[in-house]
């Protein structure tokens, strides 16, 4: 148990490390891609602006004109606004107006969009954003409307620290820094572009490596699960084998001990003279030898199946008749203390079966019903047709089987672990045998049981 947990923990740990390593690698590649795109587009936008300058084109012509008109009006109105509260509102109004016009009326954005498309070969969506860094209204005297930290103290400015001057910010690219000056105003502003599609672009670039690392993680997890399950299965089988050997020794020893004692008894003079005692002892020896023989045969046969397909000698048989025969002889033999009821609804159905194997199969179910019982045994045997199958149901009122054991009772050597297993002797082969025979006939067997209430085994065989 401890070994199993260690393997499981180690495996999970290794997988987690692997995933962490992949995440680190992917993050590194992502960052690199992000940077590449950032620098690429920064250079492109600066080139584009330079090209415009080279052609003496000002993308802010309209802005220049509108703002000129506006500031002329403002200068005329300003002396009327005296008190400071009103002044503050006015400043804000002027700044807002400038900002609105700058963002709305410029030709730089469509030009950049075209330029990017021409250079890169595909359309890259971006959002332009203009941020004013200095604005002065020039009347009789200069009237500062807005001035940010950079203008107040350019030396202390660290790139990337402020929002407006996020020179190296990877979210916004500073495409251009502009200065406009007219009769009534002086203005500095920054033109930024935000790439909303950048993530998509990076994902596209990285899709192959992302896909591969995801695939490798999935593959490794699957491999781990398979290996772990195999390990568990091997462990279970090895436990079963050990149990089997213990049980088998026990099972073989009992008849052998009886035979040894019987042999010793026969050596006694007093017994030899009593013919009935001799006969009784000889019968005992005979019975135990048959039992020993049966067990050895069963084991031999099972080991034979592993090597060869097992051969059925099939004959068309009336199932109701053969069932009545099997149950009848079971009643007079091993099942004489049990109360047995039978119900058939087969309408004379016949099936191609191997009589010997079929008999063994039903006998195993019946003798288990007797064996795993803790009170007066009541067995009910029922048989009916359903779809194209003949169903044979053997139900008992015995100790029942837990849900977990039900999953394994048809496995080779499996014996239910609950309760006192030494109370019920066995090798864990009976139901394995039943399953093999049912499957060889093209059918199957199923179990339904409630611990303490009883079990129902249903064999289905096509007809
Ligand atoms: P064995 O009887 O030799 O142990 P089987 O293959 O016949 O092996 O049965 C496997 C296990 O299934 C048994 O150990 C027992 O715990 C459980 N079992 C089988 N038949 C019954 C039954 N009728 N009632 C309760 N438990 C059963």
Description:
57% of the residues lie in helices and 19% in strands. It is an alpha+beta fold. A five-stranded mixed beta sheet has the order 6-8-9-11-10, with helices on one face. It has a four-stranded antiparallel beta sheet with strand order 2-1-4-3. Strands 5-7 form a two-stranded antiparallel sheet. α1 packs antiparallel against α6 (198-267) and α2 packs antiparallel against α3. The protein starts with a helix and ends with a strand. Residues 156-169 have low confidence and may be disordered. The structure holds adenosine-5'-diphosphate. The site of adenosine-5'-diphosphate (ADP) has 20 residues, from α10 and α12.
Quick recap:
The protein has twelve helices and eleven strands. With 463 residues, the protein is an alpha+beta fold. The two termini are 46 Å apart.
- Outline the biggest β-sheet: 5 strands, mixed
Molecular shape: rod-shaped
End-to-end Cα distance: 46 Å
For the secondary structure, the number of strands is 11
Structural class of the helix and strand makeup?
A: alpha+beta
Number of helices: 12
Which oligomerization state do the chains in this entry correspond to?
A: single chain
Task: Point out poorly predicted stretches.
Answer: 156-169
């Amino acid at each position: 148990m401890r070994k199993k947990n260690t393997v499981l923990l180690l495996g999970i740990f290794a997988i987690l490390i692997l995933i962490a390593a992949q995440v680190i690698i992917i993050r590194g590649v992502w960052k690199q891609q992000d940077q590449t795109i950032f620098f690429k587009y920064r250079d492109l936008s600066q080139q584009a602006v330079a090209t415009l300058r080279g052609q003496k084109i000002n993308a802010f012509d309209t802005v220049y004109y509108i703002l000129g008109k506006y500031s002329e009006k403002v200068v005329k109105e300003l002396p009327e606004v005296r008190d400071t509260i009103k002044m503050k509102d006015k400043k804000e109004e002027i700044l807002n107006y400038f900002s609105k016009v700058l963002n709305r009326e410029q030709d730089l954005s469509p030009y950049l969009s075209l330029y990017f498309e021409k250079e890169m070969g595909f359309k890259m969506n971006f959002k332009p954003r203009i941020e004013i860094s200095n604005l002065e209204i020039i009347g009789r005297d200069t009237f500062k409307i807005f001035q940010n930290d950079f203008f107040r103290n350019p030396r202390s400015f660290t790139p990337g620290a402020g929002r407006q001057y996020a020179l190296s910010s990877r979210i916004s690219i500073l495409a251009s820094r502009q200065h406009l000056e007219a009769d009534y105003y002086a203005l500095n502003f920054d033109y930024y572009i935000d790439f909303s599609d950048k993530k998509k672009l990076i994902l596209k670039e990285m899709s192959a490596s992302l896909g591969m690392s995801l695939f490798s993680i999935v593959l490794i997890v699957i491999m781990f699960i398979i290996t772990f399950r195999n390990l568990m299965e091997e462990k279970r089988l090895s436990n079963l084998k050990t149990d089997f050997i213990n049980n088998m020794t026990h099972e073989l020893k009992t008849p052998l001990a009886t035979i040894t004692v019987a042999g010793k008894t026969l050596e006694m003079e007093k017994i030899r003279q009593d013919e009935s005692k001799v006969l009784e002892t000889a019968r005992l020896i005979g019975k135990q030898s048959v039992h020993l023989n049966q067990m050895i045969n069963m084991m031999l046969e099972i080991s034979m199946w592993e090597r060869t397909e097992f051969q059925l000698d099939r004959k068309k048989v009336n199932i109701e008749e053969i069932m009545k025969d099997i149950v009848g002889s079971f009643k007079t033999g091993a099942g004489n203390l049990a109360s047995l009821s039978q119900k058939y609804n087969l309408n004379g159905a016949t099936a191609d079966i191997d009589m010997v194997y079929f008999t063994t199969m039903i006998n195993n179910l019946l003798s288990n019903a007797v064996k795993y019982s803790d009170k007066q045994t009541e067995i009910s045997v029922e048989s009916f047709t359903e779809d194209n199958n003949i169903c044979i149901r053997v139900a008992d009122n015995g100790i029942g089987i837990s849900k977990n054991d039900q999953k394994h009772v048809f496995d080779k050597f499996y014996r239910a672990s609950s309760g006192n297993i030494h109370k019920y002797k066995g090798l864990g082969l009976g139901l394995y045998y039943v399953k093999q025979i049912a499957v060889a006939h093209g059918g199957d067997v199923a179990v339904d049981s409630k611990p303490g209430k009883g079990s129902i085994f249903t064999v289905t065989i096509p007809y």
